[in-house]
Amino acid sequence: QKGGYRHFMLKEIFEQPQVITDCLAGRMDRKHNRVTLTELEALPTPSRLHIMACGTSYHAGLWGKYVLESLARIPVNVEIASEFRYKELVEEPGTLYLSISQSGETADTLAGQRMVRQKGLPVLGLCNVVGSSVAREADSVLYTQAGPEISVASTKAMCSQLVMLYLLGLYWGQNRGTLSAREMSQNLLTLETLPQTLTSQLPDMQKRARQLCPEYSRARSFFFLGRGIYYPLALEGALKLKEISYIHAQGYPAGELKHGPIALIEQELPTFALAMQNHLLDKIGSNLMEVRARNGKIIALTNPGVELDIDEKWEIPQLGDPLNSFLALPALQLFAYEMAVYLGKDVDQPRNLAKSVTVE
Ligand code: M6R
Questions:
Q1: How many CB atoms lie within 10 A of CB 186?
Q2: Where in the cell is it found (predicted)?
């Protein structure tokens, strides 16, 4: 069942190249450089998007905000479903509500979606489980086609959600004319080659993650820092580490550090930074200098050629934004996985957690 892997989580991390291939199948028209999402044909292109989700799916939604706003120029609001469901709903014409849920059974996401539908407003579901409640009750549903996810810690499901959000950005971008033919073609080409790149990188990523364990598994707490699209991934890296290794971790947008959390930095509190080669590299570089000046240890996930004053450099190939996310995400997952294994934790069944949270 585990296909030769020690845990379902590891198997599911290594399934991500196939997950990307399956998500893209039938949805990319390379001949005309278009994205085809037949599920959306009955829905008008929204002028605003409101995302509701929990946990890892919420982090995917936050990532989607950056990508959709940039590709399709559609303003996106993302809310934790347990907060959203108890708020006064402010109706804005042209808004489409998007429920993101791997299981499609998360009580809060479903309740948020029901509240929206009671008001006669449109809901699109982004789900993995076919025929789940979120899928059945939405006006339209996009399936992520990631296959069953057994491990409580969500990995390949998030990867599939990111691919679908990216495709949504391209789809609405092409409908709204915000992307040139050249941009469409470049985006589709890089997406197409992604599974192959990821397959070749995963074994080395696992080795690199393992190397970091002896020293860093002693930490009682971690910061995960990112900026732009890497901020939601920093949140996800922290969640994964907490969930399966039981090491406290907090994700932050790096620029927010000096507004309070920097007070915690010392030698015993390491930072895991996402510092890709992009327009924000100088910014995160100077945030990391502030950490360094307070004796904080730093692991940085970065691209070749980037110069940073840090303790551990972890290089991944430069695919550009947002494609680097699809390498950064498994690196974070493998880091949490190897730390949990090193500490002897029950990786697939972490304490106090259920795979799908069907009660409040
Ligand atoms: O099935 P859903 O995507 O609605 O689940 C949401 C969260 O419960 C889930 O992502 C949770 O945070 C994971 N265990 C994280 O690994």
A1: 14
A2: Cytoplasm
